[in-house]
Amino acid sequence: MATRIEKEKEVNASTLVTNFRDHLTCSGSSKEWRWDAEFAFFVLKQCIISRVLMFIIQFVMNVVVTDYPTDAFQGVPIPQAELSQVDRWIHIAFGGLTRWDAVHFLHIAQYGYTYESNLAFFPLYPTLIYSLTLIWSSFCAVRTTIVCVAAHTHQVDETCSARLHCVYFKSG
């Protein structure tokens, strides 16, 4: 019995072993770990498909369903007179993503933590948005829109899903 186990260990040490549970490939003798390329491509493909589907669904629902207040906190109003034609088209395409937490993140990026209700949101995401406005304002001095992907990505049954936020900011 012990000899059979030893023989299996020798065979496993000389061959390439793929651990399906964590999708890493390990060479038994050198113990060098590397990502399985096929699984990494699968995960990347699932993440891209989920983001494209989320965009399509939000676009269709934004056109079909009438907007309604999603929160008592309305955030910063966007005066229509300041918007360019490009901004209007971007708002039509991504307007459905400017709901819920995105309103709070936008307000924090523009004005900081002015209300107690904003304290529930960590500063990293608004800081990144604000940094993008500083970079973007050197190229374009119009009110514009940036789609920020990956507010949080989590793995459920080996597929990726993500919340998308469309955030408005004033540059220049």
Automatic annotation (TrEMBL):
<dbReference type="GO" id="GO:0000009">
    <property type="term" value="F:alpha-1,6-mannosyltransferase activity"/>
</dbReference>
<dbReference type="GO" id="GO:0004376">
    <property type="term" value="F:GPI mannosyltransferase activity"/>
</dbReference>
<keyword id="KW-0337">GPI-anchor biosynthesis</keyword>
<keyword id="KW-0812">Transmembrane</keyword>
<dbReference type="GO" id="GO:0031501">
    <property type="term" value="C:mannosyltransferase complex"/>
</dbReference>
<dbReference type="InterPro" id="IPR007315">
    <property type="entry name" value="PIG-V/Gpi18"/>
</dbReference>
<feature type="transmembrane region" description="Helical">
    <location>
        <begin position="39"/>
        <end position="61"/>
    </location>
</feature>
<keyword id="KW-1133">Transmembrane helix</keyword>
<dbReference type="Pfam" id="PF04188">
    <property type="entry name" value="Mannosyl_trans2"/>
</dbReference>
<comment type="pathway">
    <text>Glycolipid biosynthesis; glycosylphosphatidylinositol-anchor biosynthesis.</text>
</comment>
<keyword id="KW-0256">Endoplasmic reticulum</keyword>
<comment type="similarity">
    <text>Belongs to the PIGV family.</text>
</comment>
<comment type="function">
    <text>Mannosyltransferase involved in glycosylphosphatidylinositol-anchor biosynthesis.</text>
</comment>
<dbReference type="GO" id="GO:0006506">
    <property type="term" value="P:GPI anchor biosynthetic process"/>
</dbReference>
<keyword id="KW-0328">Glycosyltransferase</keyword>
<keyword id="KW-0472">Membrane</keyword>
<protein>
    <recommendedName>
        <fullName>GPI mannosyltransferase 2</fullName>
        <ecNumber>2.4.1.-</ecNumber>
    </recommendedName>
</protein>
<keyword id="KW-0808">Transferase</keyword>
<dbReference type="GO" id="GO:0005789">
    <property type="term" value="C:endoplasmic reticulum membrane"/>
</dbReference>
